Fold each of these.
Amino acid sequence: MTMDSTHRSPLNRRDLLARGAAAVAVASIFPAPSIAQAAYPSRPIRVIVPFAAGGPSDIIARILAEALYEPLGQSVVIENRAGGGANIGIGMAARAEPDGYTLLATTSAIVINPSLYKTIPFDPIKSFAPISDLAITSQMLSVLPGYANSLAEFIAKAKEQPGKLNYSSPGLGTQAQLTVELLKLRAGIDITHVPFTGGPPALQALLTQTVQLVTNAVPTSESVARQGTIRALAVSGEKRWPSLPDVPTLVESGYPGFVTDTFAGLFAPAGTPKDIVDRLAKATQQALARPEVAARARQAGFQVIGGGPEVLAARVAREVPFNRDIITRAGIEPR
């Protein structure tokens, strides 16, 4: 019997199963828009800080983590993974799943360590997707009151006693050490480096007169400088530090182009989807633009940058060779 177009043969169970399997196969070839991506983030985000709690990168990371809850709607949890001159934590972040749920907040170690170590578990450019250039802080060169009233006076003393003066820093290969090593090259002086494991003990070495000069990031030494316990001779930023308006920059002290800020940046593992990176960058810029967040950063010794992925990528590309040049010219042997 012939059936018209308004009638169809009833489907048996075998037909239904076959059609269902075909539908699944088609769906696997042409997937629907990603629900996971659309809902990102759907769980807390981990941010690895490759230093101990209380350091500059930890401070700015915690300020940011709290501020990101509002634009992202998820908690941001800080995980300190110190050790190996920051290589352990940075390497962990480089190997993490590129799904946007493990990020890295680090300072200038990411652009210094490639020239400071013979082998490292990451590539500063290939291993990461830059998210945001968060903030900067300057290095501050200080002496005890009465020892020298200016950087020029300190350099004159160093030239009178070549090889006899010492300076302290928070550690080998830190931006603080490289700042003085570059000053030695630019000024033609010979002073000996005494490294410590952190800013506070480096400062204590000056206070006990173990060294004649200390170089530290502003957050470590700012309060004692303002109290008059130490005398700040210069800061290494492009501009004078807002809370230390009487302290000249190294540029103003006679060294054109001498800028060695320590920066804090937020990165994702390479391969993280661009829409997730863009979402994180936008949320970070929104968070850092809030006046109360910028005020907390300033109070902690940072100036907010809030640049996007392109700004951070440009900084990394610029500072890797810059620091390599200092390390090479200063004769610092890779470890």
Note: The CA atoms of residues 242 and 298 lie 9 Å apart.
Amino acid sequence: MGARPGSKKFSYEEEHTHIKGRGLIASSALGLVDGLITNLSFLTGFAAAADLSLVRFAGLAAMLAGTVSMFFGGLLEARSELDLFRADSKREAYEIKNERDEEIAELKALYIQKGLTGEEATMVVKRISSRDDKFLDDLLANELHIHRENLENPYRRGAVIGMAFLSGALVPLVPYYLIGIKQEALVASVILSFVFLFSAGAWKGNIVGRSPLKSGLETLLIGAAGAAILYVIGTFLGFV
């Protein structure tokens, strides 16, 4: 049974679970696939024109450089989102304090656009605007489509995307360290990377509700195309 109208206590348990940590999942998927495709493409192209020891060194350097770059890229992206949110919050808070009637009218118009009648919108906005913190959150969510809950810790975002890139970039590099013949290492690297690409794509598809098979094949084809293009370029450069 639900709570009686006017009751102060109200509890509701969500029957269907939602995807938690959307931003971090997206960041990890991006870093993982990006790291794998980047290093696979680089190593495949480089292996066509360089000896094994140089391929190993270059692959390791590319992996570490990419990891650092992705860490700071993720950090700066999340930091920028946080700074923009704070600037928007500050501006809207000022307008609530100094232009309250206009903000109430704007929020009411937004609720009417969603399908509420004028009377219903007035009642809802009156209730929401009785608390400035809730009023501010509602304005940010409805007017600017910004949600406080969606913001992520910049350092955590950077660490997640950086470590994911490192993990992905390590996959095509490992065979070059375990196998002493360059061509065999190249073939093993491509096969291992393709299997991992398909698995990563299927995992991502399963999380977001897409067909794992379709998502896996899509990710695999993108990685294969990148590797093939750079292999051709590397082969050409090897004959220059």
Note: The chain has one domain: 27-239.
